[in-house]
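Sequence, please.
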């Protein structure tokens, strides 16, 4: 267990340093993309991309987490685990693997709540003033124009979920153009944390019902049917930040790999957070992190089999 737990870090700077070191150790080339200054302030944040396997491979698996808050560090740990905890040996010769480290560069440093905010199960909902709502609408309209967001798919999301990502849309477009030129079959896997049994992993399809992507996901994985039906309203950015939508020449399968952080049964049974207890977006104990890595590895193995089976 100790080895598999060691791939997880508790801050983005350490996560990136360890990722770069691991890539350097095995001679893996890295392409780096800086985040926009207007969202990162004085802190330099970067999205780093590494690809392994044949550059001519037409089948590509992608690990690309766009989660915000500390949950964004799960994706960083998943990627480091591939490089250091045995994940490399699973990659078939016919499949390439793209590792997009911190696709949302500022994600892991976004707090879900302000540091001075006291969280209570009985705390009333915030009072959204007209000015706040107007500002949110204007900001999201700009994001929609840049990313080509479908309003209908996002109709059920909360305002808190509509914060624009920290990366410039041109960064994802550059990644799509340079890393997937020969790709014809792609599976984008977005590791995140969410509700569910502690440490258990579930697959949520982000493709529309009756689509080819949804059919592939159903044949490759055991899906969480309830969450799949509401995947786009899960609360953050679309799967992988919408990377799959930038690959028009490829058949793309989009899935979220969700690692549970608590039991829904416990919550539904009446258990609540304490007055100063933050929600567990990235548990620190060894058992959870060990289970999380094994969930990532199992998902990648199933992805490889699916990509090889479906031409």
């Amino acid at each position: 267990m100790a080895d598999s737990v060691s791939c997880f870090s508790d801050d983005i700077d350490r996560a990136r340093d360890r990722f770069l070191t691991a890539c350097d150790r095995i001679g893996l080339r890295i392409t780096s993309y800086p985040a926009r200054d207007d969202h990162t302030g004085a802190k330099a944040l970067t999205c780093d991309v590494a690809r392994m396997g044949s550059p001519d491979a037409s089948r590509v698996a992608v690990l690309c987490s766009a989660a915000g808050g500390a949950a964004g560090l799960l994706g960083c740990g998943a990627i480091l685990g591939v490089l250091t905890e045995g994940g490399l040996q699973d990659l078939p010769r016919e499949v390439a693997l793209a590792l997009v480290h911190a696709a949302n560069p500022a994600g892991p440093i976004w707090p879900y709540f302000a540091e001075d905010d006291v969280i209570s199960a009985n705390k009333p909902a915030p009072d959204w003033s007209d000015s706040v709502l107007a500002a949110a609408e204007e900001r999201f309209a700009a994001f929609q124009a840049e990313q080509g967001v479908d309003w209908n798919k996002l109709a059920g999301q909360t305002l808190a979920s509509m914060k624009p990502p920290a990366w410039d849309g041109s960064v994802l477009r550059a990644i799509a153009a340079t890393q997937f030129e020969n790709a014809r079959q792609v599976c984008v896997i977005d590791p995140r944390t969410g509700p569910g049994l502690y440490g258990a992993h579930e697959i949520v399809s982000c493709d529309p019902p009756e689509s080819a992507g949804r059919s592939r996901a159903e044949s490759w994985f055991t899906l969480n049917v309830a969450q799949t039906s509401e995947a786009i309203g899960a609360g953050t950015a679309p799967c992988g930040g919408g990377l799959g939508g930038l690959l028009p020449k490829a058949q793309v399968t989009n899935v979220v790999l969700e690692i549970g952080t608590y039991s829904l049964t416990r919550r539904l049974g009446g258990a609540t957070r304490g007055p100063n207890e933050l929600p567990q977006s990235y548990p620190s104990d060894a058992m959870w992190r060990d289970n999380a890595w094994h969930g990532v590895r199992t998902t990648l193995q199933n992805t490889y089999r699916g990509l090889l089976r479906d031409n």
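Confidence is low (pLDDT under 50) at residues 110-126, 158-164, 232-237, 273-278.
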